[in-house]
């Protein structure tokens, strides 16, 4: 590995590490979390300046939602599934269907559009082990996800 590879630097600078017991996930060290939070706060401020409202959605969501949104058919093989009380659930691989649930719960007029949602959402994807590459391609990561419900002419 190149000395400037982020995985090498992460270990060398005591920022983070990865290990076989949690493949595709990151163990953030205290120094790394300081850097992580600085970057996150910078993005958060920029999002607020751009008119986004931050939301937080669940990590475990009924498979029904993923089927209704079409994500199960397209991405189901790359989603972590589990069962509880004989009901199928998935770890959230993306936030947009959950943002749609936040939107649906409000009573809004077309005049309120566009609405800008943002989330630093922990997502999980069942990436093949050969595709994993440090922080660049992982199974568990935080995604700064945005959703913009809007009218057609507002695209």
SSE-based structural type: alpha+beta
What is the fourth-level CATH superfamily? Bira Bifunctional Protein, Domain 2
Q: What is the average per-residue confidence, as pLDDT, rounded to a whole number?
A: 93
Largest pleated sheet: 3 strands, mixed
Number of domains: 1
Strand tally: 8
The unreliable regions are none
**Beta-strand content bin:** 15-25%
Number of helices: 5
Distance between the termini: 43 Å
Explain this structure to me?
This protein is an alpha+beta fold and 155 residues long. The chain has one domain (6-154): BirA Bifunctional Protein, domain 2 (2-Layer Sandwich), CATH 3.30.930. It is 32% helix and 22% strand. The protein is built from five helices and eight strands, in the order H-E-E-H-E-E-H-H-E-E-H-E-E. Strands 3-7-8 form a three-stranded mixed β-sheet. A hairpin with a 2-residue loop joins strand 5 and strand 6. The chain is globular, with a radius of gyration of 18 Å.
Keywords:
cytoplasm, threonine-tRNA ligase activity, alpha+beta, 155 residues, three-stranded antiparallel sheet, globular
In short:
The chain has 155 residues and is an alpha+beta fold. It contains 5 helices and 8 strands; from the N terminus they run αββαββααββαββ. The protein is 32% helix and 22% strand.
Please give the structural blueprint.
Elements: H1 6-12, E1 16-17, E2 27-28, H2 30-49, E3 53-54, E4 60-62, H3 63-69, H4 71-75, E5 81-84, E6 87-91, H5 96-105, E7 117-124, E8 140-147
Parallel strand pairs: 3-7
Antiparallel strand pairs: 1-2, 4-6, 5-6, 7-8
């Amino acid at each position: 590995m190149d000395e400037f590879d982020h995985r090498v630097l992460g270990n060398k600078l005591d920022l983070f590490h990865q290990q076989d017991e949690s493949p595709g996930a990151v163990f953030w060290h205290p120094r790394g979390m300081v850097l992580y939070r600085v970057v996150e706060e910078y993005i958060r401020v920029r999002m607020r300046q751009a008119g986004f409202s931050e939301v937080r959605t669940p990590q475990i969501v009924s498979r029904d939602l993923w089927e209704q949104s079409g994500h199960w058919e397209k991405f189901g093989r790359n989603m972590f599934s589990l069962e509880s009380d004989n009901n199928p659930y998935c770890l959230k691989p993306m936030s947009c269907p959950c943002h749609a649930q936040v939107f649906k719960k409000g009573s809004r007029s077309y005049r309120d559009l566009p609405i800008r949602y943002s989330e630093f959402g922990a997502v999980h994807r069942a990436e093949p082990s050969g595709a994993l590459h440090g922080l660049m391609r992982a199974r568990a990561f935080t995604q700064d996800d945005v959703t913009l419900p809007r009218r057609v002419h507002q695209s």
